[in-house]
């Protein structure tokens, strides 16, 4: 089943009501999702080889969330020379949230994913992923541009943030450990 077929199977109200039920933390964004649905319904699908996969989780605070990725048959060995690497034939996962919506509409949905979520829930999962950086394609494109610019100007921003987080975590752990109370700070 293609993503556009999911959206064709349900009314806006069915999708929005289910989205709020499925992901209550997004209830305040209902109008934005309604705007995105109108834009989606006016587009023609652009068919691709990309297949959508998703998994559902519950965060430590009890809120449901999902992860979504795409695969198109490309393996890691297709992208780089990895002789002797056992994972070289592993299929590459792609981030989909910055893809044009017409491409989304033309993507196939993995049968196992669709079986797990069901059609209406999967429609909501796709809508959330498509709009996670904005409720218009212009907002999503701007978020992509901003990310690229940040990456180009701060090539190590991931490492810097990760290092800071690790140091903060180690300090908090050290503060909670009674046997470290008498140790001097470095």
Amount of beta strand? 5-15%
The geometry reads as globular
Radius of gyration: 21 Å
Total DSSP helices: 9
**What is the H/E string?**
HHHEEHHEHHHH
Structural class: mainly alpha
The poorly predicted ranges are 157-163, 176-186
Whole-number tally of structural domains: 2
Instruction: Write out the strand line-up for the largest beta sheet, numbering strands in chain order.
Output: 2-1-3
What profile does the largest beta sheet have? 3 strands, mixed
What would you note in describing this structure?
By secondary structure, the protein is mostly helical. It contains 9 helices and 3 strands. The chain is globular, with a radius of gyration of 21 Å. Helix 2 (12-22) crosses helix 7 (119-130). It has 2 domains: 3-135, no CATH class; 137-179. It has helices at residues 3-8, 12-22, 30-41, 76-79, 101-106, 111-117, 119-130, 137-153, 157-176, and strands at 51-58, 64-71, 108-109. A hairpin with a 5-residue loop joins strand 1 and strand 2. It has a 3-stranded mixed sheet.
């Amino acid at each position: 089943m293609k993503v556009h077929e999911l959206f064709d199977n349900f009314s806006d109200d069915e999708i929005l009501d289910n989205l709020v039920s499925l992901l209550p933390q997004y209830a305040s964004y209902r109008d934005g999702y309604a705007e995105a649905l109108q834009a989606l319904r006016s587009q023609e699908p652009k068919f691709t080889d990309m297949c959508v996969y998703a998994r559902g989780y519950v965060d430590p605070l009890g809120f449901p969330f999902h992860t979504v990725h795409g695969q198109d048959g490309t393996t890691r060995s297709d992208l780089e020379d990895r002789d002797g690497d056992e994972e070289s034939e592993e299929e590459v996962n792609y981030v989909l949230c910055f893809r044009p919506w017409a491409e989304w509409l033309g993507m196939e949905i993995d049968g196992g994913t669709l079986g797990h979520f069901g059609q209406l829930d999967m429609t909501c999962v796709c809508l959330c992923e498509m709009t996670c950086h904005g409720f218009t394609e212009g907002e999503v494109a701007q978020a992509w541009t901003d990310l690229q610019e940040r990456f180009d100007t701060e090539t190590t921003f991931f490492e810097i943030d990760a290092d800071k987080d690790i140091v903060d975590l180690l300090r908090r752990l050290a503060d909670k450990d009674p046997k470290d109370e008498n140790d001097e700070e470095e």
